[in-house]
Sequence to fold (329 residues):
Amino acid sequence: MGWARRQRCRSYTRALAAISVMAVAVTGCSALNSSGPSAQGGSIGQGPSLAGQTYNVGGKEFDEQKVLCQLTIAALQAAKATANDKCGIVGSVPTRAALTSGAIDLYWEYTGTAWTTYLKRSNPLRDSQQQYLAVKEADAPNNIVWLDPTPFENTYALGVKKQTADRLGVKTISDFAKLVRANSPDATLCVAQEFVGRNDGLPGLQQAYGFHMPAETVKALDLGPIYQAVANGNPCTFGEVFTTDGRVFALGLSTLTDDKSFFPRFNAAVSIRKEAFDHDPDIAGVLNPIATKLTDDVMLMLNKQVSQDGKDPRDVARSWLRQQGFIGS
Fold:
């Protein structure tokens, strides 16, 4: 998600500038994380063999994407393929450009990001499966194949400290809207600058839920500091967060239920160049079983180990794959 999911606040101009140096950036991505023996064995080793295939595996620069990238590398190695680590590309648009240019062969993308950012569709679908199928169909003419989606969604949410949510009796965005309409001093919101202007951000949210926040109650911050600001209750009680960000768990936050299903669906799925997929379609049989196991709770746990506990994404990914029996010990 990068520009669209953690780094969404980068402007389109900056993203285009990043594309011009994309080839250099991809070449230098996270080589240090590739050290250590290749993954072997497990259920993947007993399944379809990708021997003789070589894949450049990409991913964006934030923690969740680093974990997903390392999961992919380990899985491909266990299937006897060669997997080159190109994790850590800065931004969604440059990562997508790396895919379409052939600098990388595959990476995990989010359906909502693809729909609104790359496919330029203005009306996201509210059903996760319908959104995935629409993206898969619309991206096929671009020679991009989408593998199975994950159950988890890393989508927009409004976050608040758990104790504060209990004190205010706020569990849903409709509850938050009532708080705003009542002019509560707790009806303050920290958001990234882009969220202020996006149709799937604050303007659309206010319209969908029937409330309006005075300018002085909305604070624009960089995305990263919002989590700590909400945990501190200063300068905002509520804030824009992403549902599977490890900091939600680490800082004791809760996310409000989007009871009107306003926010777009952001399920993750491997997007792969058709040429690379056609070399050996068995890659779907290697990666799809992993996708089905990645629930919200699993992704939160994996992200926490990186974001809060400071563990290496490669170690986190391989430990989980071993626990699930996908690779050997």
Remarks:
- The longest strand covers residues 144-153.
- Residues 63-78 form the longest helix (16 residues).
- Strands lie at 54-60, 82-89, 106-110, 144-153, 156-161, 189-191, 218-220, 238-242, 253-255, 267-273.
- Confidence is low (pLDDT under 50) at residues 1-25.
